[in-house]
Write a structure and sequence with these properties.
The chain is an alpha/beta fold. Helices cover about 35% and strands about 25% of the residues. It has 18 helices and 25 strands. The strands form four sheets. Strands 3-2-4-1-10-9-11-15 form an eight-stranded antiparallel beta sheet, with helices on one face. It has a seven-stranded antiparallel beta sheet with strand order 5-6-7-8-12-13-14, with helices on one face. The chain has a five-stranded parallel beta sheet with strand order 17-16-18-19-20, sandwiched between helices. Helix 17 links the parallel strand 23 and strand 24. It starts with a strand and ends in an 18-residue tail after the last helix.
Length: about 600
Amino acid sequence: MCGIVGYIGYRDVFPLLINGLKRLEYRGYDSAGIAIWDGKVRVYKCRGKVSDLEKSVEGHPVSGKIGIGHTRWATHGEPNDVNAHPHSSFGGKFVLIHNGIIENYALLKERLERKGIVFKSETDSEVLVNFIEYIYQKGGVSAEMAVRLALSKVEGAYGVVILCTDEPDKLIAARKGSPLVIGVGNDEYFLASDATPIVEFTKSVIYLNDYNIAIITRNEMKIKTLGNVSLIPVIQQLDLDLGEIDKGGYDHFMLKEIFEQPRSILDTFRGRVTSDKSDLRLGGLYSIIPRLVEAKNIIIIGCGTSWHAGLVGEYLFEDLARISVEVEYASEFRYRNPIIGKDDVVIAISQSGETADTLAAVKLAREAGALVLGICNVVGSSIPRETDGGVYTHAGPEIGVASTKAFTAQVTVLAMMAILVAHKKNLISQEQYKHYITELTAIPDKICRILAQDNEFKKIAKLYKGVNNFLYLGRGYLFPVALEGALKLKEISYIHAEGYPAAEMKHGPIALIDHNMPVVVLAIQDHSYDKIVSNIQEVKARKGVVIAIVTEGDTNIRELAGHILEIPATDAIFSPLLAVIPLQLLSYHIAVMRGCNVDQPRNLAKSVTVE
Ligand code: AGP
């Protein structure tokens, strides 16, 4: 949720912290702050963006070689200067940045207040840093020991980096539930919530595991458990380039990522489609396929856009592989005391690989003995490390908070998995199998043809940028896309929008329709075409304005709809990959025309690492 950075080495730390925080700003942008050691600790923090922080420190001393920084997504205490991080402890001995939630903070705070400790902010994080100093003062222990003792008493999630003014030549970092990456350099170390602030300095990284603590000086790093057991760190090489995390000349990351989809889908099936397009190879599932083929029940879990991709997965596995599927909101699944059998296969979908509810649902499914697979985009993130196997979507870094290319990459992986299992189960012929593979490899070009119509989407956006409501309707494979289209518009333009199975409209939502209600209808030519045409007539009869996404060359709906957006023909199983593109661009242009911050929509964050 929040973004944290840290550095200890020989470089000037201020620009490093500021640039690092800018790279992580998609994780939270309510307030920002830094602490730098230059013989004494200097803390600068304020409400707002990292750029506001930069302005606020102009003229102040910021030189130093050791420092920590934080960009916040508020959970406890409103976005303001006092609740901004870093937080200093009551005696000034410790300065801390925290990503996560300390669930038992109220109890700890009460106890510390009874000891006379006064709090400045409303945050759970300040409770943690005060608790550390309290143990440090009371116990006469080292800074490391005080941190380990305090963390062994807190409940919840944390990624923390701590500086102790009595031991200023080191940083202490620890994680449980929230991600923390350590970049290993020569006589320098970098710390961050993900690799984006680190890649320009080193590709050698360590992903800290839960209950691990790292004690880092300029030229040495020790990793231990909270129980003081030394660990040998596993250094991995980043498969990420700086160029991938820049806007590449686009106005927004979201627009860049929408236009990257031909390549991201190509990269997602690259090396997984044989050169003669006769077979699929999913290496991460190689040893697991037999259990998937035998599976009686698949449970797909995820949140937000990943949940929508899961819904497409349900249609794919039931339609092609004839395996029954349940799609679950991870947050509900984990607390619903769900029935998870040992023969069940659980597929967790997450772009970031860090979403707290999905991660917890994965752990629950593993404890129940199910086979747990992951479909994730961020290599080395927590969910892939908790699963029995899985498939990485190779969509590249997704910086825009509104997920776009990750959705189409997730659907691409689900399609490949379902087609492969259907083939293994002899439910589709070799000919049909090869046809699906060939059609999949044609999708990137078809998306290019849709992207080339962007001006058409812009024209429609201009007409409807001022409305307050939108309705999205779809049938079959396109019902989840209607939900996704509505979510995209909601999260970046703040227009209220709902997606519905088209036939469901008559059971209530049709009451919303009048001449002010634009209704986006996904009306491609498939087995439910006639039904969707009737739905369009029902909307038209109530003076609703129909924006129809149709198959190229469709002349029938042209008579009925106010606006027509054409997409190339493809198999129904691949239609979500094409039909979602106009919806992504429509929401993007409407949001830009309404002056919204498309890449950092209000109240949202890219990776939801707290419950
Ligand atoms: C989608 O645009 C949103 N950013 C959000 O709904 C997102 O899909 C959800 O938080 C799940 O994230 P994940 O895929 O990283 O787990």
